Amino acid sequence: MEEAKKIRMGAELAESTWAIVLFCVACGAVAGALLPLLARGLLTLPWAPLEGPAELLTSVPEPALTLGTVAVGALAGLLLGFTAVHESLSVSISDTHVTLTIRDSAQSFAREEIAALFRDGKQLVILAPDGLEPAREHCGLSWPRLTAALSAHGYPWAEQDPHRADYRRWVPGTPGLPEGADALLRARARALKDSDDADDARELRGELLRLGVVVRDEEKRQYWRPARRS
User: Fold this and answer.
1) Which residues, other chains included, contact 87 with Cβ-Cβ below 8 Å and sequence gap of 6+?
2) What is the pLDDT of residue 170?
């Protein structure tokens, strides 16, 4: 009862910072502990890549070797954890607005700007009344808790994308696209192949939305549909 009352008053949903960081540190420490075993295994092969670094690594006596690799792995995990926290999504829900915050940037959507919200794989999607998707963000939050909070405030939740059947796979030169959209999709395809260009892919998605084209990804493949404007 108390939890339901808090949800009705307003909800701020975010992933646990400590849970993310501790998970990454633990994974880094385990990887560090396995590194000496991997290096010794490589040296038993007739030919192995990175043989020089493996010999250098295994020349360090135990237990200093394992303790050192565990410490380095844990530190790398700590840095990765803080990066993951920075990249994680938080959602603020009130009677009038839904606000998504990620990478120190917030997007706020008024109730009348939201036709529906739905889950697409690991992404939270906001669907606008004109058929566009002003937000599509990776979401690590508890889906049951998120849907309960949205429902408590009267926001429409769809079990699946209402326009899923309208998507077509993009290939270069696809007919039916607005002028300039094919070039943007080509540039975005290159950005998707480069893991360091996630921000570029996001920006290009925004440019496509301005042309009335909604895009979703499956692996490195792009699927598109025109917005259904009212």
Assistant:
1) 102, 103, 138
2) 96
The separation between the first and the last C-alpha atoms of the chain, rounded to the nearest angstrom, is 40
> Looking at residue 35, what is its pLDDT?
87
pLDDT number for residue 1: 47
Architecture of domain 90-158: Roll (2.30)
Cα torsion angle, 107, 111, 114, 119, sign: positive
pTM, two decimals, is 0.76
Say which amino acid occupies 18. W
Give, for 82, the enclosing helix (H) or strand (E): helix 64-87
Contact call for residues 115 and 156 (beta carbons, < 8 A):
yes
- Residues counted in the chain: 230
For residue 137, give the 3-state DSSP assignment.
strand
**Closest to 67 in 3D by CA, of 42, 32, 38:** 32
Nearest to 91 by CA among 17, 152, 161, 150: 150
- The DSSP H or E segment spanning 98 is strand 97-102
Q: Which is it for strands 157-158 and 116-120: parallel, antiparallel or unpaired?
A: parallel
Token pair in block for residue 48: 């192995």
Each residue's pLDDT tens digit, 69-93: 899 998 998 898 877 777 788 999 9
Query: Taking a C-beta distance cutoff of 8 angstroms, is the pair 219, 192 a contact?
Result: no
Element (H, E) at 93: strand 90-93
